[in-house]
Write a structure and sequence with these properties.
Elements lengths: L1 H16 L30 E5 L21 H7 L18 H5 L15 E5 L3 E6 L4 E6 L16 E6 L4 E7 L19 E8 L4 E9 L8 E2 L3 E5 L22 H4 L2
Parallel strand pairs: 4-5
Antiparallel strand pairs: 1-2, 1-10, 2-3, 3-4, 5-6, 6-7, 7-8, 8-9, 8-10
Amino acid sequence: MRQLINVGFILFAMLGFFSTGFAQYGSGQPVELKAYENGPAPTKDLTGVWTRVRPDDKFFSGSTWTAEPPKLTDWGQERFDTAKNSNAGGFALGETNDPVLTRCYPPGVPRVYFHPYPFEVVYTEKQTILLYEYDHTIRRIFTDGRANPEDPVALWLGNSVGAWEDDTTFVVTTVGIDERTWMDRTGVQHSDQMRVTETFRRIDNLNLEIDVVIEDPIALAEPWVAETHYLKLAPPSWELSEISCSGDYLDFGAFESFLDE
């Protein structure tokens, strides 16, 4: 029964997130309550809190990148066949081997976009920082001209570098993503050779598009070209809240055997 209640809570939260209104905010006390107005896209700027939206007549999935599955190598197919996902499959929470659910592992790149919570973009002198509401996840995209490392240390969010292609297009490449993460929520897995390219396009002041291309010569028979993700700038009164994997919305009693391994 406890699991059913928790699953219901997740679904309720997701429905609230994908609604057209912005009903829930963080725990801070915002000063500016006036909504942003639309207009031309600012120059080389992704600042703000972004939420995913569901445009009419566009592909939308909460678990995978394309309507058709990617073309896998034998290596990739063998590992995919071991996945017991609880998002697009027939496995209950007590049966899944999804590492995010059973071990509280970070979702990694690019899967992090499928967690139905907003993220905020902030800048420092040499980095673009993505602050994901989900599980306090912080991602650093270096913009000081460095290249991707040739022999990267494996990180949950990988090693990312980015550059502006023009005034409204920001391109990020990420390598060295921990192999324990999945490419999506259905269980497509990857090797240490995975490379993810994200293209952020600021359409106007309120709208952002993200295109994702996933390459992995060991797991994928050809690059996996994702359908576009669409996001909208949240009003300035929306401040990130706290969504923790460690018990806030899941009952981990069913997973103690996994955690003890």
